[in-house]
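Service request form, structural biology core

Requester: graduate student, group of Dr. S.
Request type: structure prediction, single chain
Budget code: on file
Notes: please return the result as C-alpha cells.

Sequence provided:
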Amino acid sequence: MNASSRIAPVVGTILQSQDLAPRYEHVGFVPVALGVLRQMKVAQFVDKGLEPKHQGPQHTKARADGEPAPLAGPTPGQCLEAMVVSVLDAGRVTLYGMEDWVRQLPVQQYWGPHVAAEHFSDDRLASTLDTLWETGLESLFGRVMAHSLTRFELTVARLHCDGSTVTLQGAYELPEGEPGPVPLRGFSKDNDRDCKQLVIGATVQQDGIPLAFGLYDGNTTDQPIYRGHMEAIATAMRGSATTTFIADCKLCDQYCLGALAKQHLDVITLIPRTHSSHQKSVDAVLAVPWEQWPVVLERVSRTSEEPTEFRCMSVPVDMQLAVPGELDDKGEPTYETKTLSWTAIVVHSSQLARVHTVKLKARWDKVHAGLRQAAKALHKERFETEELAKQSVARWLKATKTKAWKVVSRLVQESVPMPRGRGRPKVAQVPATKQVCRVELSFEPDEQLRSSALATAGLFVLVSSRPLSETFTASDVLEQYREQHQVETAFRWLKQPGAVAPMFLHKPSRLAALGLVFALALAVYRIIQHRVRTALASTGQTIPGNNHQPTRKPTTTVVAKLFHNVHRIIMPTPQGERVWLQGLNSAHELVLAILELPIDLGLSESCLLDESRGA
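Core staff response, request fulfilled:
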C-alpha cells in the first residue's frame, strides 16, 4: 500500500467530519450534445419573437408574503434542448420521466440560475410542444438547418429523400378538424402488418444530415412528401449548381419530376418495372449479352466469397414531366406537359442476379407443385367423348396459372363396366362395358420463358436528368444512387436508438412537434459524426472505438461511449467550492477540439483532473 492510498481514507474522514465531503456528478455525453445543439442556435430560433411569460399568482403571493420570487423556469427553447439531449443521451425519455432524468444533471450550470429540475414537468414540456406547433415546425427546422449549413460548412451536392412508417398505440379518436397529422390504419413498411400509424418523411444530404423532416397522415404516399420537401429546402438547395435529388422508384412520377425541373434540380431515381420506359430501356440493351457489358463497380462482401460486380449500359429515354405553373382562377395549379430526353442506365448486379435466380427457381417449383395438385381432380374425371374431355382441359388451363411450365395433355381411351340391373347375374353372363375418355397431364419447363426471365435477373434501371460525360459517368450515377442508404439508416436510428415509436401523446399537433425533437436529435447525431470523421480523415489521427480499437470512422455512439466515464468532482472548501473534471484524456481533448467545444465543457471552475497526466 502506497502513501497516497493510506492518506486518502484519513483525509476523507476529516473532510466528512467537517461537512466538506466531495460530491461526484456524472457528466458523460450530455454537455457535448448540448454544445453542438447550441452551435445550431436551436433555442434562439425557438424563443425569438415569443412574448415573455406573465408573472403568475405564485409571484404575487411571494411578493405579498415578503418571500423571494419563485424561479422563472426554462424557456421553450431550453425545454426543447433538454428533450433533444435526452434522446441522444438516454435513447428516449418519456415526458413524465424528464424531470427525474434532468435531476441527475447540473441544471443551473446548463440552463442558468433561474431553472430547477422540477421545472421540466410533463405539463411544461407539453406546453413547449404546443408552442413549437404554433411557431411552425417546417419553417423552424428549415431556419435551424439553413444556419447549420453555413455554420458547419455543409454541402448539398446530393439530397436523398424517402418515407417510412411509425406505429402508434392508443385509440386516437379525434374530433373533426383537429390540427396535426391524423393517425390511420395501414400496412407498416417494416413488417406489412396492418396497424395504426403515422408516416415519417425525411430528406438528408449526402452525409446523412437531415434538411427536411415531417410526420404525415398514416395513409400518405411518398409523392407528396417528395414535393413538399423540395419546396421546404428550396432555399438551401439554391446556390449549388450541381444539386441532385435522389429517391426510390416512387419519385418516377411526372408531377414529382416536374416539380424538380421547376426547382432546377438534377434527379436520379429508379424506374419501376411498371413504367413503360423500363422495358424499352431493357430491350434496347439486351441485344448485347450482359456478360459483355463493362464492369463499372466491384464490391467485396463480408458475408459472401463471391465479389459483387456491377455492369452498366446507358441508352437515351424520353421522360414525361408535368411542370407546375401559375394558379388558375379557382386557385388550382396548372401544369405544363414536357417530354425531355434523359439517360437511362441499365445496371446488372451479380449479387442481385443470384438472389433473383434463387427466387425464380423457388417460384417455379412452387407453381409446379400447385399444378400437380390441381391436376389430380382432372385425372379422376371420365368423359363420354373426346370433345367433352378437350373442353374440360381448356377450362382447366384457363383457370390455372401455368407460368414457366408447358402443359402437355394426352387423351386415353379405356373401358369401364356399365351399371348392371337388379338381381343375380347369370353364370356365363359377360359384364357390359363402355368406352370413356380420361385426361393425363404432364408438365415440361418452358425454356424460352425461363431463359428470358433469367436474362433479366439482376437488372434494374436508373434514370438521370444530367447527361453523362467524362466527369459524370454511369459509375457516378450508380454510386450516388447507392448512397440512398443514408436516409434509410436515419430511419433505423430513429426507430431503434432514438426510439421514436411507440408514441403516447393524445394530440396530433404534439405528435408532429415531437417529430421535430427527433429530427433535431438526428441532426446533432449526424453533424457530430460527420465533423469527427472528416477531421480524423484529414489529419490521420484516431480515437478509441469499439473494443478500444483505434478508428478514424467513429459513429456518434462511439463518441458518446468515450465520454461515459467523465465525472465532475465538487470539493467544498472554506473559501468556496472547487470543481474538477475527472476522466478526461487526450482522446477527449481531440474530439472537443474538433467540435470547437471548451476543454472543460464549461463545467469546471478551477482546474481539471486529467487521467492521462495524473491528478
